[in-house]
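A reminder before we start the practical. When you read a complex entry, don't treat the lines as separate problems. The point of joint prediction is that each chain is placed relative to the others, so the output describes one connected object in space. Small molecules and nucleic acid strands, if listed, are placed in the same frame. In the example below there are two entries. Take a minute to note the order of the lines before looking further.
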Amino acid sequence: MYMNNILSWLLFVDEKPTNLYQGVMGTSFWIDLIANLAITVSYFLIPMGVMYWLYRKKPDTNKGVAWLFSIFLLVWGIHRVTHIIAFYFHFAYFETVTDVITGVVSVLTAVVVWRTLPRVFNLIGPHEVELKNRLIAELQEDERRKDEFISMASHELKTPITSLKMLIQLSFNSLSENSPEKVGPLLLKADVQLVRLTRLINDMLDISKSKAGKLEITKETVNFDEFIREVVQGIDGGDHQLVLVGKTDKKIAIDQGRIAQVVQNLVNNAVKYSPGEKEVKIIVRTVTGRVLIIVKDQGIGIPEKLKRQIFRPFYRIEDQSKGSFSGLGLGLYISAQIVKLHQGKIWVESKKGQGSEFYVVLPL
Amino acid sequence: MKKVLVVDDDKTILEVVGILLQMEGFMVFTLQDGEKLFETIDEEEPDLVVLDIWLPGINGDVLAEQMRYGKDEKYHNIPIILMSASSESVKIARQSKIQYSIEKPFDINDFMALVNRALSLN
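Here is the predicted structure of the whole assembly.
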């Protein structure tokens, strides 16, 4: 009963003249009718498309406003249907009900759209998304390197600590076994490990100084040939023979400690990355008023694409087929910073598997 | 006299572990990498092999697996101790199914206890 009552109420035709009142079905009538049909079909198809997209893609943001906007267009589609019907009849209450619904949905949509605008303006475009993604990737890579550095640092620090701990315990044992003559050599070895530990810690401090722009040098004029001879003599090449070739006959203003550190880093790397080889060459000469130092090994070499990266902090060459190389990946970065502070240049020439030549140029 | 072969890339560790083992009455052979491991085992016939995990060339855990599960059965029963400064050493040893492992820095008494256990159980 209720349904019948509602239907007959909705379908009540009032006495208002229809859009066809004048009874003229001329060109303007047909244009009007076709245009209204096109608008109506579009009003249904557009929101259906948007709703299908919403259903399939399930976007993260502004879902609500997109659904509301689709409903708003659908309601307008229905409103247009009543407009077309009105060419023939005026269902007075049906029109009123669709008008009211359309009005309410329209006002609601308008309010929601305007309230959403500030949030939409804050959304970033595809270019900014790409930039943001690249920055995130770089940060993640930095983070990964730092994590790796922390694990490497703890490994590197633990190695001399292991020797120190054993040497001290052996010294105690020697004393308790009444063999004090054994203690001296053990403590000498312990002292060498302390020097090694100090150097590792200094490298770590240097990197934080360098990052803060606080790495400083104090230059003194020295006889370069004497200086480099002393530095090379002071390096323990292990199984490798360190061969110093050439001379410059020049005096040069450098921070002796820092340039010695650069040469030590390069020679230690050359030794480390040429397992099984017996010789590392340190070649010095003058080139157009500058001093050139070359450290040459026959080791595993450096692939072309990594030649720049090795001067970045925390970077170490890894070669799965060659196992693991210890080190913090700080030496070359610190060396490059020191050379830069001397207005010099550092670079490498190398091929994978064919050894490396590190070049340092220092102005006189 | 029992023979021990120690492999570590750090010369000082090799030297100090060598001193310790000699003081305890062992004969010690050392290598800085695993390149000549099998050759040295053939020559010296050690009763125990102590391998550092982090080595230039082939890593210690891989060498241990090659010894334990390789084709050549003569290496299968030589006891192995894996050592490393990494806190993962125990995990790596377990993954390689190597029974004995020790993390650096270690107490020399703990190390010797492990050496004696590995030898006596053999």
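Discuss with your neighbour: The CA atoms of residues 18 and 64 of chain A lie 38 Å apart. What might explain this?
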